[in-house]
Amino acid sequence: MQKGKQHIILTKIETLENLTLFMLSICTQLQMDKNTRKLRNQDINPCIEESDASQKCMDAYNYDKNMCSAYFQRYKNCRKYWHNIMVQRRRDGVKPDMPTAAERHEQLGAIGGKPY
């Protein structure tokens, strides 16, 4: 094979590899965006406020976890509380499993605020 043809073939292979990596990168980014949107959706994630407070604390205290343990515990309690609600609704055949943000707000108002 001539040297010029070898260069063209190698260039095509490198271009194909770059294209493959590019496509993989885009697919990964789309998946990450989907997951991020899901985490920030108040109808899906009932503990956004607690999560944000934990992150804010970490930022304020230069990621010293010991300074933010109360925030972490509140987040953990929030997740546990809503997980139990979700499991009970699933057992009772209620759809969706997780109450919407409006339903949660109404439930919390009926019990006098957040129990966690």
TrEMBL record:
<keyword id="KW-1015">Disulfide bond</keyword>
<dbReference type="GO" id="GO:0033108">
    <property type="term" value="P:mitochondrial respiratory chain complex assembly"/>
</dbReference>
<keyword id="KW-0496">Mitochondrion</keyword>
<dbReference type="InterPro" id="IPR051040">
    <property type="entry name" value="COX23"/>
</dbReference>
<comment type="similarity">
    <text>Belongs to the CHCHD7 family.</text>
</comment>
<dbReference type="GO" id="GO:0005758">
    <property type="term" value="C:mitochondrial intermembrane space"/>
</dbReference>
<dbReference type="InterPro" id="IPR009069">
    <property type="entry name" value="Cys_alpha_HP_mot_SF"/>
</dbReference>
<protein>
    <recommendedName>
        <fullName>Coiled-coil-helix-coiled-coil-helix domain-containing protein 7</fullName>
    </recommendedName>
</protein>
